[in-house]
Design a protein that fits this description.
The chain is mostly helical. Helix content is 61%, strand content 12%. It starts with a strand and ends with a strand. The model is unreliable at 1-20 (pLDDT under 50).
Length: 135
């Protein structure tokens, strides 16, 4: 629960976050990081804001470096997963296994369009013929 402080000279209420909360300014930064598709950095920043006692004496550069490292690790992990998925799909295709590589969004959009066109059963039967689906 935030503590409330009355500023007598301006008669304003100022809500001060406790150590377990994220203040309004930080929420704006978190939203902007999500908008820029920096979700790992946003999550790490939010954790640093909530647990500010965890990193006492860590400089701005140190905190910022940790945020960048978290985003870097996430992106490298995704690239590695994609590489492995493509390699597996390539090997399967060379062994005459029916392979489909697509995003889950493309798959779902295709199903929605097929449903709208009244061809959902036909599209599902086509997907059932695929032996290896990589999303």
């Amino acid at each position: 629960m935030p503590s409330i402080k009355i500023v007598p000279s301006m008669a304003l209420l100022e809500v001060l976050p406790t150590t377990n909360e994220v203040n309004i300014c930080n929420l704006s930064v978190i939203d902007k990081l999500h908008d820029m598709r920096l979700s790992a950095m946003s999550d790490a920043f939010e954790c640093q804001c909530r647990d500010s006692d965890t990193y006492p004496g860590l400089s701005f550069e140190g905190c910022f470096g940790m945020l960048v490292d978290r985003e870097w690790d996430k992106r490298k992990g995704i690239k590695l997963q994609r590489y492995i998925a493509c390699a597996l799909g390539s090997v399967a295709y060379r062994n005459f296994i029916k392979v489909l590589l697509c995003t889950s969004a493309d798959l779902l959009n295709g199903l929605v369009v097929a449903y709208g066109d009244g061809m959902l059963k036909k599209v599902i039967k086509a997907y059932q013929k695929i032996n290896f689906l990589i999303l």
